[in-house]
């Protein structure tokens, strides 16, 4: 199927379940020409998991005068996060206090707006980025200390288990939604990818990060 058809189908499916949901088209590994085509059919929000790759591809498009909103969706590294400012509008992978501190510091230094999602690792897989439930609940009462004039906390992000067990995926998404209800009811939930976005929508997702279902297999 074509990019255009994929996009129409995904939109129809998603908006039927939640008319206010937002779809981020995850363009990692896809070349600039495909992204340009995506912009031409009306896709606006894109996701890249590597800062350097995102800059390489999207700076060219910005210089061409094209309009888009860029999300960083991968784990955030303290050493490189300063490069986010200016081109990226959101980062979804804030998973440690040290990266949060650095984000805060850089936002005041660079004076470019950025919004962030705290990544929560509810499956507690050691190889996965993110705060445990306990770490998150300790952080939330102090989260405003990290916000600045330029840096705003947008919500929570999570990923299903690496083994793609759909029952466990639902449990994880539902648990994140419950944390939101209990501790930050006005914040957004970023969860759901090509394999599990339907479940994510049913469990309260506001923002979906979808790649291969839009662009085709990588
Ligand atoms: C790649 C990626 C996605 C999209 O994955 P698809 O399976 O292609 O939809 C979503 N979120 C993150 C963090 C990713 O790295």
Question: Could you provide a short overview of the structure?
Answer:
The chain has 218 residues and is of the alpha/beta class. It is built from eight helices and eight strands; from the N terminus they run H-E-H-E-H-E-E-H-E-H-E-H-E-H-E-H.
Question: How does this structure look, described?
Answer:
It is a single chain. This protein has 218 residues and is α/β, with parallel strands linked by helices. The chain has one domain (3-215): TIM Barrel, CATH 3.20.20.10. Helix content is 39%, strand content 17%. It is built from eight helices and eight strands. The protein has an eight-stranded parallel β-sheet. Helix 6 (166-183) links the parallel strand 6 and strand 7. The longest helix is centred in the C-terminal third of the chain and has 18 residues, at 166-183. Bound molecules: pyridoxal-5'-phosphate. Pyridoxal-5'-phosphate (PLP) binds next to strand 8 and helix 8.
């Amino acid at each position: 199927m074509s990019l255009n058809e994929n996009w129409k189908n995904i939109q129809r499916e998603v908006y039927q379940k939640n008319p206010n949901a937002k779809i981020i088209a995850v363009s990692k590994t896809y070349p600039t020409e495909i992204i340009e085509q995506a912009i031409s059919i009306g896709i606006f929000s894109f996701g890249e998991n590597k800062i350097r790759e995102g800059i390489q591809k999207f700076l060219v498009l910005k210089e061409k005068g094209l309009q888009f909103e860029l999300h960083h969706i991968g784990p955030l590294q303290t050493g490189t996060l300063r490069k986010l400012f200016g081109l990226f509008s959101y980062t979804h992978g804030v998973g440690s206090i040290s990266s949060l501190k650095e984000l805060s510091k850089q936002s005041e230094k660079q004076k470019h707006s950025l919004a962030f999602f705290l990544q929560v690792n509810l499956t507690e897989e050691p190889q996965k980025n993110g705060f445990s439930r306990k770490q998150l609940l300790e952080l939330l009462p102090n989260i405003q200390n990290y916000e600045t004039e330029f840096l705003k906390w947008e919500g929570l992000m999570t990923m299903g288990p690496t083994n793609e067990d759909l029952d466990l995926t639902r449990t994880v998404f539902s648990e994140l939604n419950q944390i939101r209800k209990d501790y930050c009811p006005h914040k957004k939930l970023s969860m759901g990818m090509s394999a599990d976005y339907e479940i994510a929508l049913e469990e309260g997702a506001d923002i979906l990060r979808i790649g291969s279902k839009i662009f085709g297999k990588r």
